[in-house]
Amino acid sequence: MQKYIKIPIFFFCLLPILIIFYQIAFNQLGPEPVKKITHVTGEWTLRFIIITLAMTPLQKFTKLNFWISYRRMFGLFVFFYASAHMMTYVGIDYRFDWSSIGDDIIKKKFIFAGFLAWLLLVPLALTSSKRMIRLLRDKWKKLHKLVYIISLLGIIHYLWLVKVVTVEPLIYLIIIVILLTLRVKMKFN
Amino acid sequence: MKKIKYSEVTPEKIYRHRRSFIKSMGLGAGSIALTSIPFINSARSKEDTLTSYKDITTYNNYYEFGTSKSDPYINSQNFKTTPWSISIEGEVEKPIKLSMEEITETFISEERIYRLRCVEGWSMVIPWMGFSLSELLSKVNPTSKAKFVEFESVYDPEQMKGQRYPVLNWPYREGLRIDEAMHPITTVVTGVYGKALPNQNGAPLRIFVPWKYGFKSAKAIVKIKLVENMPTSSWMRSSPREYGFYSNVNPNVSHPRWSQATERVIGEGILAPRIETEMFNGYGDEVAHLYSGMDLKKNF
Question: How many contacts (CB atoms, under 8 Å) link A and B?
């Protein structure tokens, strides 16, 4: 049963990037298309972080186990959109101009936070298979706690980027803080 | 203000065609027409293609109407710009209050094509309509105490929904040093593309300072005050570490969050590369002397 639900969910998760491809093809990204793609992929990264982080609390509260079975897929979509986000910046925006990019990473704290978040996602994506879970056991659990740090880096990346703090980054911040506090609470219960 | 009928408005295509026609006449009659327009012949603007009317009027930073760049166009359509008047006061011999009608009758607007460089790293090429701010300021005879000019934009939260939130310190304030304000390319803008200035671009009257980042060019101005001390602009108040008083376009001084070395040209599409940002936005020949001996890294 779950298998049949997983496939449509998978395609739903792909929708944002498909919409971007459509908008590229039909020139619907507005006057600053590169910035638009960067923003949209960045926002979806944050949304998938929130979705991924919500699976465990949902399992605890609803006492239904199926939530957990989607967690890995959502987690991998975090990595997918984060990579698309970074590749837009590195490849399309800066044309692999490594000296400028390196300069940005060192000098701009919001880019540093974002780059670090992406870097920390790499080991999580690499160890996401069932085989790796079995192989690493307790270490796997410890390693994947990195997602808490990644989520905070992601929201800091957003907050440091905006010229004036508006409602949107604050909403992401509040949701992520709630989800992380739930974790702390669950641990102490 | 004289109402312009839609039928009188030049369509963008003809407008562009006319321009290329003038260009194609080269050093003939075209250059006579062009010499009446100051600085249009600067090396940079010759190669630049004009940004489309649509992009100029739908992609704006104007936080009074919302923080998203599509907000100003959407939220400013019912903004009332009549009646409107501007008071010029402070360290002047003859403070005055001018109605918009008086301004359009007294000062003749001409076409001035300038590049706009936003601090966010994008740029446009805009055919403004306007006249030199120095002409306006000469009406009031600034005293010797007038060292700076402060611009105050309108405060009207009823009509400007962005002002209902403390996004910035309202009303929007900006400032220039007196010699910057008196420079002939510092422009009082009344229109764009030969048409009246749209609300989202700062109607009925705004300033445009071509060699500074866009936020220095205050929109919908109601008061111009000549003062002795350096005024604090809204952005300086919001984040003094990020926004200095001068805010000259400078590829060598990076903003704490963005490199200013390159920029993206609006309307160029997804495959166009960034271009290198020029010192003083390419207007160094005209304005560099204003800053001789000044450390522009310190005075950013």
Answer: 51
Burial bucket for residue B246 (CB in 10 Å: 0-12, 13-18, 19+)? buried
Contact (CB<8Å) A31/B238: no
**Please, what sign has the CA dihedral across residues A41, A42, A47, A52?**
positive
Please indicate if any CB of chain B lies within 8 Å of the CB of A160: yes
Q: How is domain B40-291 classified at the CATH fold level?
A: Sulfite Oxidase; Chain A, domain 2 (3.90.420)
How many other CB atoms are there within 10 angstroms of residue A149's CB atom?
Answer: 12
Q: Mark yes or no for CB contact B267/A24 under 8 Å.
A: no
In three-state secondary structure terms, A82 is: helix
Q: pLDDT tens digits, residue range A60-84?
A: 999 988 898 899 999 999 999 999 9
Q: What is the percent of chain B where pLDDT is above 70?
A: 84
Using CA coordinates, name the residue in chain B closest to A101. Answer: B259
Confidence label for B47 from pLDDT (cuts 50, 70 and 90): low
Contact between A30 and B59 using a beta-carbon 8 Å cutoff? yes
Q: Would an 8 Å CB–CB cutoff place A57 in contact with chain B?
A: no
Interface confidence (ipTM) of the complex:
0.83
pLDDT tens digits for range B200-240? 999 999 999 999 999 999 999 999 999 999 999 999 999 99
Give the separation between CA B252 and CA B147, rounded to whole angstroms: 27
> Do B81 and B199 meet the contact criterion of CB atoms below 8 Å apart?
yes
Domain ranges of chain B: 40-291
Alpha carbon distance B7, A177 (integer Å): 57
